[in-house]
Write the structure tokens for this entry.
Amino acid sequence: MITEGLTHTSTVIVSDANTAQTLGSGDMPVFATPALVALMENAAMKAVAPHLPEGSTTVGGFIETSHLAPSPVGATVQATAILTEIKGRKLSFTIEAVEGEKLVGKASHIRFIVEREKFLGNL
């Protein structure tokens, strides 16, 4: 059962593969904003995944993100998502990302519960 307060923390180590320079979102060797967004969405997805009906998943519909501080190659970044509101199939999350004690990002994120087969059938 999905209930408000569900949470999950996803972790990534900054590598050359997820820098702004490599992903093309900037030209410096620091953790890329698109990689931060992906980490945040991953945390939200995993917060509710074990509680979904069989055959269902969630898809992202909206994210408003602030990338507050750079993280160098080798740093560990953790994003923690908390489910804050449920309105039918619409799930709202708050997310914070940290590198150690340093807040590096925060977001509000909306995901929707969908049936996998039906969703893929719309392609």
